[in-house]
Amino acid sequence: MDLMAIIRIAMRALARNKLRSILTMLGIIIGVGAVIAMVSVGQGAQQQAQQQIAAMGSNMLYVSSGTVNRNGMRMGWGATKTLVMEDMDAIKKECPAVRDAAPGSQTTAQVVFGSDNWATNIIGTSPQYFDVRTWPFAEGTSFTQDDVTTAANVAVIGETVRKNLFGATEPVGETININNIPFQVTGVLSMKGTSGGFGQDQDDVILIPITTLQKKITGQDWLRWIMVSAISRQASYAAQEQITAVLRDRHRIRPGEDDDFFVRNLADIAQLADQNAQLFTILLGSIASISLIVGGIGIMNIMLVSVTERTREIGIRMAIGATEGDVQQQFLIEAIVLSLAGGAIGIFSGLAASYLITHTLHWPVLVSPAAIIAAVIFSMAVGIFFGFYPARKAARLDPIEALRYE
Amino acid sequence: MTATISQTAPISHSSSGERAVILVEDVHKYYDLGETRVHALRGVSASIERGEFVSIMGASGGGKSTFMNILGCLDKPTSGRYILEGTEVSKLDKKELALIRNRKIGFVFQGFNLLARTTAQENVELPTLYAQVSRDEGRKRAHESLELVGLGDRTHHYPSQLSGGQQQRVAIARALVNRPSILLADEPTGNLDSRTAVEIMDIFQKLNDKGLTIILVTHEPDVAQFAKRSLFFRDGKIRKDEAVLNRPVASEVLKNMPILED
């Protein structure tokens, strides 16, 4: 008997019991839908984590001044005054894995433009900073190396500052007052968004030459941090070691003594975030897979009920010439049709759920074709696995007994 | 396998009868039920020729159902030989038996045994689905079969929309659709009123007149009298094998039967 005929028989049998067929499929629909929606959410989170890390700057290392232990009171990172401009020059010169570096120190200050004022972070740095952090300009340009050398009163502002101080006014060329010192705005940075690792608004910032900050605002000549970019992501670990060696040497730290600085490799953070998101995907996916297995058990349950209920039908079919193989194939195909049809509807409901999640909860969702293909294969496997036993049971019935069954 | 089963001609067989359609030789059947052994058939031998209309009578427990199951290839004898159209059926495996049931045997049951929620047409098509017959051919044959039993206008009715007599006629059409060598009817009138029972016998007689071999199991002498020959079973043996004398013609009987008013 050819397969098409058996599929036709199976479809007719399912059509005779529409409500039951649909309810049975529901388990698979929910299972497949859940797998697709959950994996999409997980992969969306993974992609977002990667984007946030990319937004922090590529291949970046963050060298911060270290902690000090004063009479048993530990002061936290950034408390030492030993990190200086010359350290940065040495890092640039002596570490082959380092591409570029930018110094930094910061404070907070009240900034005034016209009748508006705004409290924000003031960062002193050099023009390399924007390159190290891969932070493009929306308008205008950076201050120059000359501005750093001459400690000029120039400033680059972040998007949040522009919004709060300028509104509709064009900022480039205007003058703002920081601590009553006038600064000319040379550029506006493009929006960077909230930092993934730190959760702070990265656009709420004003950047001025490091020398200007040190001499005219804080009066401190040491650095809080140095931003370093490595030549590649792989090289960031080598860069970390080279920087540590250079700084230990320059700060005359003897072997066995603690560092008075701290090097944080953002590749580590990136990897961690990546792993977290991956774990999240696996977790969501496996919970959803459990519902798919439950759906499969539902199919097996209904098929077993169906075999018992249709014992007489099986007897009739055998009496008129169906072989054991025909009966087994019919019930197996019924199970596969149920699970595949459920899988197909499940894909659509999963996609619909993903769409709803994106548009109502504003979660990032990434629908992956691999998840869809896996769901189809898995639902078919569920049909075969859970349909086999009931089909076998049907095929093994004795036709005489089956015909007598009431 | 197919080589051993010659495609039989439609219902109109040549009534030469030179060879037996069914040849049963010393058939025994035991059932082992735990400690006890039930001896259902104790050496049955019979020969039925093409075009015969044989009734099988006897009290329940006499072995007629077992004999029927063996003739229908649903069961195998414990010992003895059963030859159907020259094929020794008692030696075939399950798959080959299914093929024989499909091609050579038409079943009619007491309880009609139609598939519910399936139209008359689809019920009749069912055996063709297992017979490597094309869909169009299957449909055509099913329709012809239904016309043969006078239900050409009821093809799209469901069993629940048909009377008992009509359902049994659908079952007969289904039994005929693969053009079998023999029609096996197991108490076909058991669930029907007396007039409808005679109507079914009328159909059987007409099919038999066209050359179809019919074997009818019944415990009602009124029904058995429409056959040409009667076999009486008791205690697992054929006790009597006789031709029916003064056989009534069902269509004549129907003329004298009152139509029951509801």
Can you describe this structure?
The complex is a heterodimer of chains A (406) and B (262). Chain A has 406 residues and is of the alpha+beta class. Chain A contains 13 helices and twelve strands. In chain A, β8 (175-178) and β9 (181-189) form a beta hairpin. In chain A, α2 (18-56) packs across α11, α9 (266-309) packs parallel to α12 and α11 runs antiparallel to α12. The radius of gyration of chain A is 34 Å and the shape is elongated. Chain B has one domain: P-loop containing nucleotide triphosphate hydrolases (Rossmann fold), CATH 3.40.50. Chain B is built from eight helices and ten strands. In chain B, strands 6-7-8-3-9-10 form a six-stranded mixed sheet, sandwiched between helices. In chain B, α3 packs across α4, α3 runs parallel beside α5 and α5 (164-176) runs parallel beside α6. Mean pLDDT of chain B is 88; it is low at 1-18. At the A-B interface, α1, α10, α11 and α13 of A face α2 and α3 of B.
How do the helices and strands line up, and which of them pair or pack?
The complex is a heterodimer of chains A (406) and B (262).
Chain A: H1 3-16, H2 18-56, E1 60-65, E2 69-70, E3 73-74, H3 85-94, E4 98-113, E5 116-125, H4 128-132, E6 137-140, H5 145-150, E7 154-157, H6 159-165, E8 175-178, E9 181-189, E10 205-209, H7 210-218, E11 225-230, H8 235-250, E12 261-265, H9 266-309, H10 311-319, H11 324-361, H12 369-395, H13 399-404
Chain B: E1 20-33, E2 36-49, E3 53-58, H1 64-71, E4 79-84, E5 87-88, H2 94-104, E6 105-108, H3 120-129, H4 135-148, H5 164-176, E7 182-186, H6 194-209, E8 213-217, H7 221-224, E9 229-234, E10 237-243, H8 250-255
Parallel strand pairs in B: 3-8, 3-9, 6-7, 7-8
Antiparallel strand pairs in B: 1-2, 1-4, 4-5, 9-10
